[in-house]
Amino acid sequence: MVFKYLLRFDDIAPNMNWRLFYKIKDLLIQYKIKPILGVIPNNKDKELKKFPLCRSNFFSEIKKLKSLGWTIAMHGYEHLYFENKIKDYLSMKVKSEFVGESFEDQNLKIKKGISILKKNNLNTDIFFAPNHSFDITTIDCLKLNNFKYIVDGYGFAPFSDRGIRFIPQMFNRPRKYPFGLHTFVFHVNEFSDENYLEFERFIVDNHKFIIDFNRALKFKNSQALKFLGLIIKYLLIFKRKIQNFLNLF
Angle formed by the axes of helices 18-30 and 193-206, to 10°? Predict the structure, then answer.
């Protein structure tokens, strides 16, 4: 079977671990890899704000990467979570910026995020939510605001649901898989120097299998991949239920 990898970077904001981000940037440019950057339009996350502020203009830095062919996505709005006991689109009950909020409130957040990105010439029709948490209302708001893609969900190939095209994302740690499209998520702010070396080794060994967003959209689905994706979906949901149950004790 054919397999490919896609790289997704979350929590791209003015406050970030810029030292390691620039090392990652140079490495990816060296191997001609074009990842997806999840830009937080108006970061208000206190934990993220503890990281160093970009020394130059943040949006200018991101536009330079866009000019290299890197894909820009909107990663929520303010990256602020609240407690949530409602199942989201991925059947999880986790802290969320969107789940359970009214259509009006979610739509306003998305509109404000779009406005900030457009003001800085970073138009996009790609979205992924903080903490992977969104609901049907989020999807409806995204469609209303001309978003076409969400980089999240269960599966081994792109699929469509409720008028949105999904690029699935199931596993965070980069590993070799023998089939399917795999989107790996990275948080630069959580990187140590040791993590960087592990990331570097993965890139050196697997750069020929890493594709960009546009090529990922063309990855072919099949009945076998759909069946395997369904199995993995319910296994992951079951695993999360067990973890939530254990967290009660």
Answer: 10
Please choose, from the candidates 122, 130, 9, the residue with its C-alpha nearest in 3D space to the C-alpha of residue 57: 122
Q: Which amino acid is at 74?
A: M
What lies within 8 Å, CB to CB, of 13 at 6+ separation is: 39, 40, 43, 45, 48, 58, 79
Domain limits of the chain? 3-246
Please give the CATH number for the structural domain made up of 3-246: 3.20.20.370
- Taking the complete model, does pTM exceed 0.85, yes or no? yes
**β-bridge mates for residue 169, sequence order:** 153
pLDDT in tens, 14-65: 999 999 999 999 999 999 999 999 999 999 999 999 999 999 999 999 999 9
Residue 213 has φ and ψ, to the nearest 5°, of -60, -45
**Quick one: which H or E segment has residue 230?**
helix 223-246
